[in-house]
Specification:
The chain is mainly alpha-helical. The protein is built from 7 helices and no strands. α3 packs parallel to α5. The termini are far apart.
């Protein structure tokens, strides 16, 4: 599912979700399928996942939700979109970084 969510095939993702694939499934690296879509900036796929009740605050192995992960990989428009959709913006990862801290690191250096 993670590869499909980060890929270009929206139709295949829809088929899997309609076939009752779990939108909150984690891959072997303990990342949710949201992380692939976030990394590739697939807004339409994220909207599709949300229609199937994806948890945008599901944490990966580093304690990041989708919005903090987006900040970590410098996808700030995605951070804004996810927060507007209800992502927790106060979450901190295992290294105690939050979204604001990550943004400051990127802009200050």
């Amino acid at each position: 599912m993670t590869l499909v969510a980060g890929g270009n095939d929206d139709e295949l993702l829809l088929i899997l979700l309609e076939g009752e694939a779990n939108p909150n499934a984690m891959d072997r690296n303990v990342d949710s399928i949201m992380f692939g879509a976030v990394a590739e900036e697939r807004i339409e796929q994220i909207k599709m996942l949300m229609c199937f009740r994806v948890n945008i605050n599901l944490m990966n192995r580093f304690g990041e939700n989708s919005a903090l992960h987006a900040a970590y990989i410098n996808r700030y428009e995605m951070v804004h979109f996810l927060i507007k959709q209800g992502a927790d913006y106060a979450v901190r990862n295992d290294g105690s970084a939050d979204i604001a801290c990550q943004a400051w690191k990127d802009y200050a250096h």
